[in-house]
Amino acid sequence: MRNPLQEQLLKAGLVKKDKAAKIVRDQAKQRQGKAPVAADEDKVDARHLQAERAERDRALAAERNAEARAKELRAQVRQIVDAKKIKRDGEVPYRFTDGDRISSVLVSEAQRAQLAAGTLAIVHHGEGFELLPRAAADQVYARVPELIALDHGRKEGDPAPVADEDDDFYKQFVVPDDLMW
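Structure (tokenized):
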């Protein structure tokens, strides 16, 4: 049933019948909720909060990945040092600066000469220090350079070695990009 105002407008001839029917249908759709609803501020705020959460989650994930990578590199260095350290058999103290402290290790005369020549290096290992040959020291330097306590074979501006023998060996084994673990 139509609105009394609509009836009067129809009788007066000011509105056509099909125009009045269209208005009635539009009003019915609005009451039933089928009409398009404008974006609420709540929905906009919810999207904004969701975007902020996603950005924060990405930042946290990147931080966790960086920490995991650093932990992995330190584990690799620990393995290199354990596998390739040189036994210190001597009673001659070799003193060197470690940051702002002076530290010393007991070495033999031959090891002292090798340290001075740069064929041996001293690296941090746990609470102490270990002697490493040049190749192993380069591997450690490539992964975590701050663990090198003394290295006369490397100058301050020298870049890290690009590849080591382990990397060269594993280059022959190609891993496909679509490998599923």
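Strands lie at 92-98, 101-107, 120-125, 128-133, 148-150. The chain has a mean pLDDT of 83.
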